[in-house]
Design goal:
The complex is a heterodimer of chains A (317) and B (258).
Chain A: H1 3-26, E1 33-38, H2 43-46, H3 62-69, E2 98-104, E3 111-116, E4 126-129, E5 147-153, E6 156-162, E7 167-170, E8 174-176, E9 181-189, E10 192-200, E11 209-217, H4 258-262, H5 267-270, H6 282-288
Chain B: H1 2-29, H2 43-46, E1 53-57, H3 63-66, H4 82-89, H5 93-98, H6 108-111, E2 117-124, E3 127-132, E4 137-142, E5 158-165, E6 175-182, E7 187-190, E8 194-196, E9 201-210, E10 216-225, E11 234-243
Parallel strand pairs in B: 4-5
Antiparallel strand pairs in B: 1-2, 1-11, 2-3, 3-4, 5-6, 6-9, 7-8, 9-10, 10-11
Classes of the chains: A alpha+beta (317), B alpha+beta (258).
């Protein structure tokens, strides 16, 4: 055997040994693919939408509550707002399936970014940059897509988003400020993807809001990579009048207590707040709460969107 | 000659490198067998993360179905079968109380989504103990070659656990605690009588999240499979926040109504 042959063998052996060691530094887990949403919690809130003035489970403060009670979804009928995106935290309470794409560096082949599609929903796709680029200056423009960088923590992808525009925490008008940041944890176990989001908002939250969602790998999924085109127009008569913006002045929201009454909840519980999301709050509830005699609406969910099991005989939807 | 000598030298170096690397490989993969054999690490010693301590469920999702008992007939979000609907529609907490079954909503599949605090500790080197103040329940997660002693099904069933991924001293967040529970006494997924059967199995994936502030959370993915009362696996993540101590521990007995 010649010396050159020995060198070649040694190099090949070295490469074979090192290749599996260097691989994980590039991509620990493959998240790419079509992921079908599993809406096995908050099905109505994720699908058709939450009840008006249902702020349960949200550790919001008084400012957020006041802003939420001034909100009416009629604003979405305005031409200039009809095509406006929700902020990216909508990922955590939307019912949509998603497409995750790996974006490769064209030269090195390393992961440049992960892209989470909007799944046809009213938010922009999320690009998670993996190449170590810094976040922009706080004075840089804010966008509905925010700015997100990621890094691996073992088999988990951890992404931090900044530069979000003002948006929502819930589709019934609970606001999210443009000071908010979001940390996403993406974990894959077999064919289940779980995304946990930790949202910090110094303007509207008493403490961080943690939300989770699960998805199943779906070989037959067809969540689009891009959003459908939106054509703005005035959806309600009168909304094109100059200076008119639908809203409720303080104390005039006629649905301020509808949800609480529907479910026998004290108004304080329906209005959320940090104290309401911990077990000890049940001591307060115990003194005032009695379950409604029977479920009268949305008992099985809403149909479609994977939120209702088939074959049930629900007469109260 | 000069070139040949270099090649020979390179060959010797390469061989030495291979030898060292092979030695490394042997060292990393051959623990517990052959020369210098050490006994396999216990589950406790091999734990890639520390989930022991005091934890509190943070109810930011399904609040109306978890913090309070929802109305009879409200099975929203759970992919139940028609057979399950029939049972849920007949829910009568008074009957459960009379039968001494007021803990039906406190079995493992219901308990882990409950508004509870958890105290997690090692019972021994191969058994992780999970105590809940909600209903004063205790789960034992058995690692290794644990064998079921047999016997009647219980609210908490029998749980077999293993570490997946990671490795002691591995990267932060690199491991998962996987738990599979069976031999469950039939109970409720939800306080208002949405049932699960004796054929139910529950798989859990426990992940530890450490935030830049040092705050720790458990992200727990629960997958409940029941060929009798579920049309598809009920797949729900929940999360717990770590607490400094057990000062808020508040044991409350099972209650069939609230």
């Amino acid at each position: 055997m010649t010396g050159r042959t020995l060198v070649q063998i040694a190099s090949a052996a070295l490469f074979a040994f090192l290749a599996p060691m260097t691989g994980p530094a590039v991509a620990q887990v493959d998240f790419s693919g079509q992921w079908g949403a599993v809406n096995h919690q908050d099905a109505m809130g994720r699908g058709p939408g939450p009840d008006l003035a249902d702020y349960t489970g949200l550790p919001i403060n008084d400012e957020a509550r006041a802003a939420a009670l001034s909100y009416t979804a009629s604003v979405l009928g305005m031409a200039e707002r009809g095509c406006m995106f929700y902020t990216e935290n909508y990922l955590l309470f939307a019912p949509h399936s998603i497409l995750i794409e790996r974006v490769n560096d064209p030269v090195t082949g390393d992961i440049l970014a992960w892209r989470i599609s909007a799944g046809g929903s009213d938010r922009a796709p999320i690009t998670i940059w993996m190449d170590g680029r810094p976040h922009p200056s706080p004075n840089a423009p804010y966008a509905f897509s925010g700015f997100t960088t990621g890094q691996w923590q073992g088999d988990r992808l951890v992404a931090r988003m900044t530069h979000m525009k003002r948006g929502i925490m819930r589709r019934n008008g609970v606001p999210l400020s443009d000071k908010a940041t979001m940390t996403l944890h993406l974990l894959r176990h077999d064919n289940i993807l779980t995304i946990m989001g930790i949202i910090a908002d110094p303007i509207y939250l008493e403490e961080d809001l943690v939300l989770t969602g699960s998805y199943r790998l779906n070989a037959r999924g067809n969540a689009p990579a891009t959003n459908p085109t939106c054509f703005p127009f005035v959806e309600l008569p009168g909304l094109d009048e100059a200076g008119r913006v639908p809203h409720f002045l303080p104390g005039t929201n006629h649905d301020a207590d509808t949800f609480a009454k529907q479910y026998n909840l004290p108004l304080e519980a329906a209005y959320g707040g940090a104290q309401t999301i911990y077990p000890e709050y049940r001591k307060k509830l115990r003194e005032t709460y009695a379950p409604p005699a029977a479920c009268t609406r949305y008992c099985c969910g809403a149909g479609g969107l994977n939120v209702q099991a088939s074959g049930l005989t629900c007469t109260t939807r | 000659m000069g070139q040949r000598t270099w090649r020979f030298g390179a060959s010797v170096q390469s061989a030495a490198i291979i030898g060292v690397l092979l030695g490394l490989q042997d060292g990393t993969h051959a623990q517990g067998r052959g020369r210098g054999a050490q006994p396999p690490a216990t589950a406790r010693a091999a734990a890639p993360m520390d989930v022991t301590g005091y934890w509190v469920a943070v109810i930011t999702e399904d609040w109306r179905w978890r913090m309070v008992t929802p109305a009879k007939g409200d099975y929203q979000s759970i992919p139940i079968t028609a057979a399950a609907q029939k049972i849920a529609d007949a829910w009568d907490p008074a009957k459960d109380e009379a039968a001494g079954e007021q803990c039906k909503a406190y079995g493992a599949p219901g308990l882990m989504r409950a508004p509870t605090r958890l105290t997690i500790s090692w019972l021994d080197d191969t058994t992780l103990k999970v105590e809940a103040d909600y209903g004063i329940q205790t789960r034992l997660l058995h690692f290794g070659n644990w064998k079921s002693p047999g016997g009647a099904a219980t609210w908490q069933g029998e749980s077999v656990a293993r570490w997946e991924g990671g490795g002691r001293g591995g990267a932060e967040g690199s491991g998962t605690l996987v738990v599979r529970t069976s031999n469950l006494r039939p109970g409720y997924l939800r306080k208002n009588g949405v049932p699960y059967s004796a054929s139910t199995t529950m798989t859990e994936y426990w992940d530890l999240i450490t935030e830049p502030t040092g705050e720790q959370r458990i992200l727990l993915l629960i997958v409940v499979e029941d060929p009798v009362y579920l049309q598809q696996p009920w797949t729900v993540p929940v999360h717990f926040k770590k607490e400094r101590d057990g000062s808020k521990w508040d044991p409350t007995p099972c209650n069939a109504r609230f």
